[in-house]
Fold this protein.
Amino acid sequence: MKKVICSAFIVLMGWFLTAPVFGQGQGVSLNKIIAKVDNYYVLRSDLEESYQSYVGQNQTPPQKCQLLESLVINKMMLAKAEIDSVVVDDKIVDSELDQRMQYMVQQFGSEKNIIEAYGKSLEMLKSELRQQVKDQKIVQKMQQKITTDMKVTPRDVRKFFDAIPRDSLPYMPADVEVGQIVRFAKPTKEQKEVLRQKLLDLKKRVQAGEDFAKLAKENSEDVGSAQNGGDLGFAKRGAMVAPFEGAALKLKPNDISDVVESDFGLHLIQLLETRGAEYHARHILIRPDYNRLDLTGPTHYLDSLRTLIVADSIKFDKAAHDFSEDKSTADAGGLIRDAQSGSSRLAMDGTMEYAMFQMLDTMKVGSISAPLPYRTEDGKSAVRILYFKSKVAPHTADFKIDFEKLQNIVLTNKKNRAIDEWFRKSVADVYITVDPEFQSCRIFGTTQNSAAALGQGGN
């Protein structure tokens, strides 16, 4: 198998992990099956959506044969997972699905805008997306199974680097290390009281005989569970945030809690049943309007903290660890890491958050910004200060400076070879057919296959 197949597959998986696609129709022929792997199909719409995902991100798309190969490989992973009995827990799928739906709400501005854009209910969209998420998680698990415990040594990295001709060393873009200290805007007592009273009114309505599930669908701002009447399914102890779990476990089956506050907002909880170390609950979640929260408090807080850091009364990393409310960076002394590679070095280019890029462009290394308002990935209003820790100017690739990047390249290549070998061994275990229209792609050496072999007549 050509190595380009694996490369395209990795790129495609990056898109598949992030792009919420619901197969919107783009023409009468998009539902045509163009490839089949055992009982899994690749539609023309899958290929077009894959192609357009690159265009939409202003990236040069690979050749369509490469994309088709990647889609076939994806289906082959699913077919082999079925043969090997590789499964994923429904709770993992549901959790990822909830995150996807919340992300969509943030991008579209409201649930109503999503419904208008797709012409479908949220419940229908979620149902369509669920299989995509489940397939993605299974493929991810298969990849991990194939490449588990793979590591590279400094010697491997040196060997790779030395094999590159000196006149062919790539030119590396500028990258930076950036720290942050974050404080979230908090709702006022008055705002909380309005939300609290709304939940108490809903509790009274349930106690008067109204259906909790119906009220959750109509009022809960937890997009993922609201469509299921607020049902969160069974959860193991320790899986939910402490305030929620503590309140839920104090209830008897069918009892309803008082208003419970957590980092996610205000909850009304109903315990449905317990089963050993697990419990089954549903809730109605209401959150403050983050667009209307006052940023004055966190701004003053960070301004005072910045003064102490600049005066060297406290080090930035300790201040971040002790006072930042962003849990994902606080434990690392505020250091922001690349979501894909885990590296602390961030490319200072078009992939960087634009507001951060603009601010760093005006700062000197070692300086700390004034408090800056920003919106978190989950839609919360916050303020942060940025620490411009270091910068590496654009340069020809250097072994010492770029060791971490080179190490990631070597590891990726090693994983690709492992996946490549897996495909060569596994291709005989599945039946692959490709539409004659794509016979020139020569996927796994497969050429002319009739539309009839694909089980349909093709429009």
Notes: Residues 122-147 form the longest helix (26 residues). The longest strand covers residues 381-392.
